[in-house]
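Anyone able to model this chain together with FFO?
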Amino acid sequence: MSNKRATIRASVRELRNNLSSNQQLIAAQSLKMNFIQYLNGKKNTKKEHIAIYFSNDGELDTSLLINELWDKGHTLYLPVIHPFNGANLLFQRYEKNSPMKANRYGILEPKLNCTQICPLPELDYLLMPLVAFDNQGNRLGMGGGFYDRTLARLHQQHWQKPQLIGLAHECQKVTALPIESWDVPLKTIITPNKTYCW
Ligand SMILES: Nc1nc2c(c(=O)[nH]1)N(C=O)[C@@H](CNc1ccc(C(=O)N[C@@H](CCC(=O)O)C(=O)O)cc1)CN2
Ligand SMILES: Nc1ncnc2c1ncn2[C@@H]1O[C@H](COP(=O)(O)OP(=O)(O)OP(=O)(O)O)[C@@H](O)[C@H]1O
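re: yes, here you go
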């Protein structure tokens, strides 16, 4: 792993962990509004299949958005670390009463139920956590390579769905990230302040 990536990862993680709970709350409210506005802009009233994540480590808090999306009738999924091929993610249906368990990092995920897994191309949107992003939509994650590995096959094709959208605080933006061959760049990143499109 490049030293520069590790340094950026550590410094941006510290920045976002230092946000106050009030800043986190305001950010979560803005994220909710920005994503709903983004969906409305599609002029499409269909109920979407949306993979999201459960926030951890100072990440932009998705809990308000999750409730709003449920209220609007969309179907939500959360990442589950694959039980056998532990380097990939599965996306499992997430409902208010889904049984949950902590994964190896202490992040809650739905208890594995194979009947509730959504194949990647059936998702409309994949809302992704990230540690840092740059001016060109490159993404640096927590260092597990989970999203990059999960998306690798898709990335080699001209895929339509899911649309990849990164979620981040504005303080997670850096000028330029050192990129690796396996990194999957994003076309959209939503922060509390702005929706970036490339
Ligand atoms: N909220 C959220 N869920 C997610 C991710 C994420 O980035 N955010 N992931 C995105 O891929 C996957 C989990 N990836 C993760 C990778 C590393 C660590 C982490 O805390 N690493 C510790 C070292 C822990 C250890 O090795 O025991 C650290 O770096 O301090 C957390 C999540 C799936 N779910
Ligand atoms: N498509 C891939 N195929 C094989 N290995 C991969 C792939 N993508 C990433 N990896 C491996 O995963 C490790 C971590 O990658 P990287 O530092 O880019 O993760 P990340 O983007 O920070 O994490 P994440 O995607 O989980 O948020 C790398 O050492 C790399 O070898």
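The longest strand covers residues 75-81.
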